[in-house]
TrEMBL record:
InterPro entries (alphabetical): Pribosyltran_N, PRTase-like, Rib-P_diPkinase
Species the sequence originates in: Pavo cristatus (Indian peafowl)
Protein name per the record: Phosphoribosyl pyrophosphate synthase-associated protein 2
Taxonomic superkingdom: Eukaryota
Keywords, ordered alphabetically: Nucleotide biosynthesis
Transmembrane intervals: none
């Protein structure tokens, strides 16, 4: 269970009201729910700002800050909408507007960092998350608060402090409180790549672990992560007759196997992002065939794009639990199996600590290098 240390409310209020401004960079009203929750927990009003598009001017984004930010700590909360590129531009324009308005510091609160899956060199591609990090720093961002980056190494793309918070305490609490027979559960990694996360959950809950191996390779397989760029030259002998480079044996997908016992147990699949649900549906079918009688899926970020709600509703999955780092109210209406865990508590506490100059180490207690 995650608990925020007790502090006198009056002290928080007095310090917070002194030089803190809280903005929501979203022009989409459905994306402002998290911002309002954070503001309520901090006991402050949302800053006055207008973010909108003018259709008559080529869909140009307009940001108008309607109160003074001079010498203040500005926290800009940005949640990702369907139009991710507009989301990014809203943030960059607002950050730059605060910079040119002489804000003391500009802290971005971006629970889900967009383009985080594009953090490796692809074949004749680019590391988009590094480009995005550079753009944010150039615009004037001085600090970043985010949650469960797809790869922790993304923090190295920034030349500013980055606090990569964890949602696992809230998901663990949900398991303990909302799954009555969770002691009879097993934590499942749907691929070897997510085994470390599954191990972290299993060790904290004192449960067993199972790993599904042999599913179809996804977009992050070794074939497309850049290790084949530049492409292998077929006519090596034409370059140098005596040069014989040994070729790496190509991978062959083994048949699907489940390492670990799931028979007669609750299977809890854990991951960081749920976007395209095909791999989760395939994992659920495999677990059902191996005897699991109930299947939960837990992740921090619920992108749930395309027809994911319909597929989940028709699948063997009993419940999908995600946090509110990304708004998904429409998806919940389409699929009652989707449940939400609120993480505004830890984001508001991070904002309070940064503004008051307090240590952030409390929010990272018991978190190891592999978590």
């Amino acid at each position: 269970m995650f608990c925020v240390p007790s502090t006198e409310t009056g002290a928080i209020m007095n310090i917070t009201k002194g030089g803190l401004v809280l903005f929501s960079a979203n022009s989409n009203s459905s994306c402002m729910e998290l911002s309002k929750r954070i503001a309520e927990r901090l006991g402050v009003e949302m800053g006055k700002v207008q973010v909108y598009q003018e259709p008559n001017r080529g869909e140009h984004l307009i940001v108008q800050i309607q109160e003074s930010v001079r010498g203040k700590d500005v926290f800009i909360i940005q949640t990702v909408s369907k139009d991710v590129n507009t989301t990014i531009m809203e943030l960059l324009i607002m950050v730059y507007a605060c910079k040119t308005s002489c804000a003391k510091s500009i802290i971005g609160v971006i629970p889900y960092f967009p383009y985080s899956k594009q953090c490796k060199m692809r074949k004749r591609g680019s590391i988009v998350s590094k480009l995005l990090a550079s753009m944010m720093c150039k615009a004037g961002l001085t600090h970043l608060i985010t949650m469960d980056l797809h790869q922790k190494e993304i923090q190295g793309f920034f030349n500013i402090p980055v606090d990569n918070l964890r949602a696992s305490p809230f998901l663990l609490q949900y398991i303990q409180e909302e799954i009555p027979d969770y002691r009879n559960a097993v934590i499942v990694a749907k691929s070897p790549a997510s085994a470390k996360r599954a191990q972290s959950f299993a060790e904290r809950l004192r449960l067993g672990i199972a790993v599904i191996h042999g599913e179809a390779q996804d977009a992050e397989s070794d074939m497309v992560d850049g290790r084949h760029s530049p492409p292998t030259a077929k006519n090596v002998a034409a370059i140098h007759p005596s040069l014989e480079i040994p070729m790496l044996i190509p991978k062959e997908k083994p048949p699907i196997t489940v390492v670990g016992d799931v028979g007669g147990r609750i299977a809890i699949i854990v991951d960081d992002i749920i976007d395209d649900v095909d791999s989760f549906l395939a994992a659920a079918e495999t677990l059902k065939e191996r005897g699991a009688y109930k299947i939960f899926v837990m992740a921090t970020h619920g992108l749930l794009s395309s027809d994911a709600p319909r597929l989940i509703e028709e699948s063997a999955i009993d419940e999908v639990v995600v946090t509110n780092t990304i708004p998904h109210e429409i998806q919940k209406l389409q699929c009652p199996k989707i449940k939400t865990v609120d993480i505004s508590m830890i984001l508001s506490e991070a904002i309070r600590r940064i503004h008051n100059g307090e240590s952030m180490s409390y929010l990272f207690r018991n978190i190891g290098l592999d978590d």
